[in-house]
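Handout, page 2. Input:
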Amino acid sequence: MSDEEVSRTANIRWVAAAGAISLLIVAGVAWYLLRPTKVTEIQDMHTLVERLDDFHKQIEVRQQSIAEAVQSFNANHPNDPIRVDDVKALKLKDLQQQILQRMVKSEKDVSYQGLLDEIGRQDGEISRLNNEIAAIQARLPEPVEAKKGDTHYGLSMKFLTEKKGLPPEKAKEILDKMAVVEDMAPGFQVWMMYDETSGVFGSFVTQGTASITPRRAQVRAKRALMARIERAQQEQKKAEAQAETLSTQKAELQQDVQRMEQTASELQAKMTVTEREKEEAQVRAETSEQQRLTTERRVNSFFYTAGNLNEFKNRGVVKGGQIGQVGDEIFSESLDLRSDTVVNLSAGDAGLGRIGSVKVIPSSLKKGKDYEIVYASDRQRVMVEVLNRAAFLQARRVVFGIED
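Output:
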């Protein structure tokens, strides 16, 4: 090879190398200029999250369209249905493979081609939406997927205190001003951003992998709350009705108690009257009985007085063997002859040292017939025994005069 050819070859290689380097530089600049930039504004993040949530909803609509198309197809082909357990988890290529296999078996059935075209169209839209989602996610901060038991408030508090290093008091102050999603379902995605310069915190919840949207979850929670409130109101009305019934029953019972107390008072008054009448009757009966006993005792008794005979004579109690004009009050002693017939006397009754003799007055009562006198050996006591009760009862008043 001549020197000229060598030089030409070297120039070509250098130009090629320079061109390659230029292409790499251009590609690097293009990548730098076109690379996805992370959002730094909370409002921008909100807008992107809303678009992301909307794309997820569109994908769900298209997946539902595929499910409905398969369902309609299976209704017309009950003997050879397309198996779709979960459209979201289904790989569309697998579904298309099932259809192609059936098309081979039944070349004349054009419905397979229609279903295949519909799946292909929806698959294309889903792929486009997934690309859009990937582009948006590249610009957004990493979301937190809610688990069972998580709350929007709790996840936000954890983000501010652990990721952003805010004191719990400051984080609480921020979150108290934020509207939180009350009812969180597992699978919800929570997007959060904190602007340290302005102190503004943004947090948004999307459906993520959950089977329900945040909006429907809130509606469901609100309905459940309203149902609880309605039940509570019904229970309250029921309780109020029961309270009113109980109040009425209480008033009626109080009236019954008042009537019973009045009746008891009246019965007590009647019992008091009856008791008093009973007591009076008993007193009357006892009085009557006492009077009867007193009368019987008087009828069967004689009344006597015992003392010094000379004093009786001096006082006019005894005159000539009879009882003088004296009242009954001096005859304070009595003897019921139904139960006893003996009168015991002592020298002391007459104020004497000994008993010489005893005179029984009136003289109509005869010694040895109507009575008998027995003197004690020491003449300090004497016993007068009634022999004729009728004679003493007839005499009624008797004086026992003691002499020394």
